[in-house]
Amino acid sequence: MAKHVGYFPELKRNWWLKNRYFTLYMVREATVLPLVFFIACLLAGLYSLLQGQQSFQGWLQFMQNPITIVINLLALVASLFHAATFFTLFPRVMPLRVGGKAIPAKWIILGQWFGVLLVMVLFAWVFGRGV
Amino acid sequence: MMEKRVKRSDEPIWWALFSAGGVCFAVFVPAAILFIALLIPLGLLPAETLDFERSRGLLFSFPGLIFIGVVICLPLFHAMHRIRHGLHDLKLGRDKTNKVIAYGAAIVFSLLALLGFVLGIM
Questions:
Q1: In a 3-state reduction of DSSP, which class is residue A88?
Q2: CATH number of the domain that A44 lies in?
Q3: Taking CB atoms and an 8 Å limit, are B48 and A131 in contact across chains?
Q4: Residues of chain A whose pLDDT is less than 50?
Q5: Which letter does DSSP use for residue B44 in this model?
Q6: pLDDT of A105-124, one tens digit each?
Q7: Up-side HSE of residue A5: CA atoms within 13 Å toward CB?
Q8: Position B106 in a domain
């Protein structure tokens, strides 16, 4: 590879604030921050289940803390925002064809949202069983 | 015969885990957050929905293992990949170090989740 010589424009740390498109890109990158919090909650819950009833009650109380609820609400919004950007990307990366005809991108996007809904129904069924 | 060792990049592994985690983050995580972190703590579902014995039964089972894979491990790799590249975008730290810490954390916490699962089914 040829070595760069000459003029090198310096990229400032806040480059992504100067263009709406780049800012949205960084917002999408940041969607993983509340996700990490939610995953940490789940790991804590898993280990509280190993420690016993009392520990689990403590975990439930932590989950009921208004600050926890707010961060997890943010995590839900972030996951849906990530999903929205991800689902519109899919038909562009992998256009699907059936019988030589391209499936409209709109349908593929709708199909993926249907998948999200289906998982929610599955959760409702699993949690609702025998209650 | 001349033998030549081709130095392969490990990046495809991290990008594959990132993609797989991205699918899980979009499809499985919203429902998990909605039920476990919002509806149940807010008391919008009956209290028995997530009592101690029931939760143990649900998590320490085969579906529970799949749950750990698609809601904890893969999204964790997705998240740490984005954090690594986000740090680069913000010009924070050295990428070599960030890479080791980010994927190292994803591996350690994934193994911790799996260890918890094994302890739970024993």
A1: helix
A2: 1.20.1300.10
A3: yes
A4: none
A5: -
A6: 999 999 999 999 999 999 99
A7: 2
A8: yes
